[in-house]
Amino acid sequence: MRIVAVTDIHGNRMWVEKFTSLVSHSNFDVLLVAGDITHFSGIETAKEVLKPLLRLEIPILAVHGNCDGRDVPQLLDELGIGLHDKRVEINGVGFIGIGGSNITPFNTVWELTEDEIMKILERNYRPGDVILSHVPPRETKADRIHSGLHVGSKALREFIERNQPPLVVTGHIHEARSVDRVGKTVIVNPGPLFRGYYAVIELNEATKKVENVELGEL
To answer: Which domain holds residue 178?
Structure first.
């Protein structure tokens, strides 16, 4: 399975158009969008941002970010691409989603307690599933801010340690573009699309193991 992943678009239609042009000439099985489609905007902005992606003839799975408007999750569900607190299978591979972030100092639109994050994971996850989460797991390369502090989700980290999913695709922390591991789990933060970043991931459908990750730049 070839997965292409983006995150943190923050309403930048120009980079979405550039990304769409690239992807339209490649063969992918699924596009993962890890949140912050808008920058504190609602459904109308999200529609414009998503329009080029929806023209691609590949399945899309998306979660909202902590900076998306209150009505954005509803739009994702109406478009049939929303994955928050859900499980979807594509080519025999399960995907589950967590939108929003853990609690931040900034009182953003969509924030969850660690207990809420854990319940979403426990409610939806089956062994071998891929996790699409806007917030990264704590104490990884994917959650380190400029100061060096780790600000990701403790619940997600604990769940990964206990269940060892093959892949976690995340975002949220713009400066933490990276590929990391927690045990057997590969953690990918593609970096923000509004800066031209994305990731391509090769996942073996039979073994549910990540075979390769490339961090791309437009």
So the answer is: 2-217
Q: Which two tokens stand for residue 84?
A: 């928050």
pLDDT at 187 over 90: yes
Environment class of 184 (CB within 10 Å of its CB; exposed 0-12, middle 13-18, buried 19+):
exposed
Instruction: Please state, in angstroms and as integers, the Cα–Cα distance from residue 105 to each residue in 68, 75, 111, 120, 185, following that order.
Output: 17, 27, 10, 22, 29
Strand-strand pairing, 197-204 and 209-217 = antiparallel
Structural domains in the chain (count): 1
Residues 157-180 have pLDDT tens digits of 999 999 999 999 999 999 999 999
| Distance in angstroms (rounded) separating the CA atoms of residues 206 and 190 | 24
Structure tokens at 167: 């892949």
For residue 205, give the CATH number of its domain: 3.60.21.10
Helical H segments across the chain, by residue range? 13-23, 43-54, 72-78, 114-124, 154-163
Classify residue 94 by its DSSP letter: E
Q: Is 192 helix (H, G, I), strand (E, B) or coil?
A: strand
What pLDDT score does 77 carry?
A: 98
Spatial CA neighbour of 91 closest among 2, 20, 211? 2
